Amino acid sequence: MQNTPDFALQIAKELQLDTHHVANVVKLLGEGATIPFIARYRKEMTGTMNEENVAAVQKRLEQLTELQKRKESVIESIREQEKLTPELEQKILDAATMQEVEDLYLPYKPKRRTRAAIAREKGLEPLAAQIMAQNVDLVDRIAGRYVNASKGVNSIEEALQGAKDIMAEWISENINGRNRIRKIFHTKGEISSSVIKGKEEEGKTYQQYFDFQEPISKAPSHRILALFRAEEEGIIRLKIKVDDEAVVNMLEGIFVKKNNFNNINNNYSAAKLVGEAVADSWKRLLEPSIETEIRNYYKEKADETAIQVFAENLKQLLLAAPMGQKRVLAIDPGFRTGCKVVVLSETGALLHNETIYPHPPKSDVTGSIRKVKSLVDAYKIQVIAIGNGTAGRETEDFIRYIKFDRDITAVMVSESGASVYSASKIARDEFPDYDITVRGAVSIGRRLMDPLAELVKIDPKSIGVGQYQHDVDQKKLGESLDQTVMSCVNAVGVELNTASQQLLSYVSGVGPSLASNIINYREENGGFKSRKQLHEVPRLGDKAFEQCAGFLRIHDGDNPLDQSAVHPESYHIVEKMAKRLNVNVSELIGNKELIAKIDPKEFTEDHFGLETVNDILKELEKPGRDPRKSFEAFEFDKDIRSIEDLKSGMTLNGIVTNITAFGAFVDIGVHQDGLVHISQMADHYIKDPNEVVHLNQKVRVKVLQVDENRKRISLTMKL
Prior knowledge:
five-stranded mixed β-barrel
């Protein structure tokens, strides 16, 4: 059986990475190390692999491990049937893909009672073998020997039909034939759809697919997912087709020995009977089987693309620029029910809440202004966050109308997922005495202060930055998004004494259970004074400490290095540096002149090479540095509030809200995002919208077309 070192060699070759470094990654993963930890703190072992490379190694390792397990299972199953030969076992072991393994297993796979199985029960397999060999002609004479009423074979025709059923199954299990059919599907297959009669009105969203056809190999991922969704909703019939005649001719070329016989057209010619078995095998067995394979193949590819798009969007959203610790007045806008207003401290604590009614039907503008000004003065508010949903633009206009005594920044904030959070158990546990409107307003304010810290509380699928996220493989989507969140959380770092349980749970090596234990310890002991105290948290052992300590920050703690990304295992290196310069560690931190005097080569050790030492020096210059960009305020065009205000040719301010494989959606302040198709994003050809824009990017766009009835807005970035 193949083992881990073999996997490392294979993975290194496939990914074009150094074998030694891949073997180290495999070893670290086997020891329970996380991707962020390996990429950040084991650079000498990995040759400075980034997280993407480490993740690729992990993914391929999991695939190969799963393949190996399947090989072992198949070999054991065939062995139990007493049909395993050394040659077959070696073929299975040498198989490079799961498909190869399944093809080899197909003849031995336990089946339901097929037509071929029934024919075998009637003793017709020897007849099928004789016909398949095509060494005899006029096989009706031979077939006559198998007529046996007691076995259910009442005529020559029944005997021959049973033999053809067996041959059809053999043909369907032939690896060469199956591979050639797969190639035909990939190169010449057409995906086509037609509307189900009576579903025209219900499925008008999918109107473009009512009579549709294109090569399956050229269909983009979003179209494949749309077609499958329309089929799932019962709107269209979907088929992946190839030329039947071409496939049958190809199969006949493999199985029918036409040149051996002059009387091939004779009804009882062996070649003719094999040809009939070929046609039957194609329509009854091979076509549905291979079409299902092809559907699954392209669905899986489309899923991968959609998941990559979602993960990239989520990463950009989570790493959006934070406003930082400010005193915030957050507003969840509304018309009839009013605008819920909350006041948050610099740390996001809820200090006050109430409701104002500046809009119809109450239109209490004067009273609402008085309340807002009173709160701004009483709590020394620095920023006002306004949800961008219903009544968002109207509330923004109302706030900007108020004349404050000092400069107050007003910012529109995406509400995507806020309602999901406000109704969640997390929100109920955090604010048991408040209703969902208060919780929603708090979420809006907090996500302005620190998007990452707040958005980790929401199921990523509810944030609204995906492409067909409910249609893709949910397990793979969940794994990818969790990995993305973990990557972002650990890239930024987490303040140990203020982080929520949800944020802590994404820290390398922590997880939900230890996060809960950390919170409990914090509440019982009044916070952490040093990273060393993590050892006192129940069930947080040495391995978990190794994985998490470098990503957790403690400001104003006992050890100044605890606020940095320097791992505790490297503290002694910093202490040596400080000693060499005759200063203490706190004097060294942030002192560029002193740090510039350090020669990193003098501080390398067996387990900590030049890469690690250089990382330490960078971290000492700016301890606990935040990789996110600085916050920039944004305003929509004041005269544009609804889709009715739009006219072709207008140039407007916008903000990118979602990126898909076919373009980007841009919020221009009319409660309906416009689409910038990929062809309208640049003057030159681009393959990926992420080449041009990123989530939350401020852009200028021009209106191309407005369809008020369908609420569709077409935009261009070609100004």
